[in-house]
Every structure is written in structure tokens, then in C-alpha cells.
Amino acid sequence: MNQQLRNIMTSNVFTVKETQSIQEAAAIMSENNIGAVPVVNHSGQMTGIITDRDITLRSTAQGEAAQTPISEVMTAQKIVQGTPEMNVQQAAHMMAQQQIRRLPVVENGEIVGMVSLGDLAVEDQYNQQAEQTLTDISTPSSPQK
């Protein structure tokens, strides 16, 4: 029952480089039906993550052009990440605490997988954990003024 992330994570992870455009990131998301893409540098080290929400709130809503570099809208500070050895309960707790729906799995600085709430929900033994995590993530935050 103490399963590691390496056993449930998606290991075929699409990535983008910091210098690519937000339009390219959005196209990858659209083509692959995903909502987040890890951002890597030229060495393959994870430097951030860009989500569909980042594109909407940090670029489209601000009137940024589709050719804006990903580095200008990605989340780069306090990137929450797991490790392949982390157990599912730890990951779910971290996701709930940080209010995130997707957790990059990193080993030696490189992205090796991704775990989403959906990954937790399809595992029968973690379905209740996923439900509680979603409840915690969905707790409303105060609107920004």
C-alpha cells in the first residue's frame, strides 16, 4: 500500500525549452491533451513549468503576443516536485498543501515523470486519497486586489 511514484507516474513527459514561444507550449498541450509542460534548459535540467492557466492569466489576459518566450510566463520559483522514490501518500499530501493538480517527478535535476490527480484517482487504493487531495486543492483562496 506504500507505492512509489515511479509505479504510477507518466514517464513519457513532453517538455519545452525556455526560449520556445507560449504558442508552441499551447500547441503541445492541445495536441497531447495535457495541461502542464515542464520547462527545461539546454542541458535538460528542469527550470520551471508552464500550465494552461499560466498561458491564460500571465499572457493572454495581459495582452501578450503568442510569440512571447515561455520564460516570461512560466512558474520558475518554488517549483514543487517529487522524486520517483516518494510514496503516493506523500505526493498527495504535497499536492494538497501546495494546491497543485500535477506534480513533476525529478531525478538528478531531470524530469523523469509526471503525476496528476487523475493518476491517483485511477488507482483504486488511492481513490479516496485523490478525492481528499482534490478537496484540499479546490479550497478557495482569497481574490487578489
From TrEMBL:
Domain CBS as annotated: residue spans = 9-66, 74-131
Q: What is this protein called?
A: CBS domain-containing protein
Q: One matching Pfam family, short form? A: CBS
InterPro entries in the record: CBS_dom, CBS_dom_sf, Diverse_CBS-Domain
Which SMART domains does the entry link to? Answer: CBS
Q: Where is the signal peptide?
A: none
Q: At the top level of its lineage, which domain of life is listed?
A: Bacteria
Q: Which PANTHER family match?
A: CBS DOMAIN-CONTAINING PROTEIN, CBS DOMAIN-CONTAINING PROTEIN CBSX3, MITOCHONDRIAL
User: What is the protein's species of origin?
Assistant: Virgibacillus halodenitrificans (Bacillus halodenitrificans)
Q: Does the keyword Lyase apply?
A: no
Keywords of the record? CBS domain
Cross-referenced PROSITE patterns: CBS
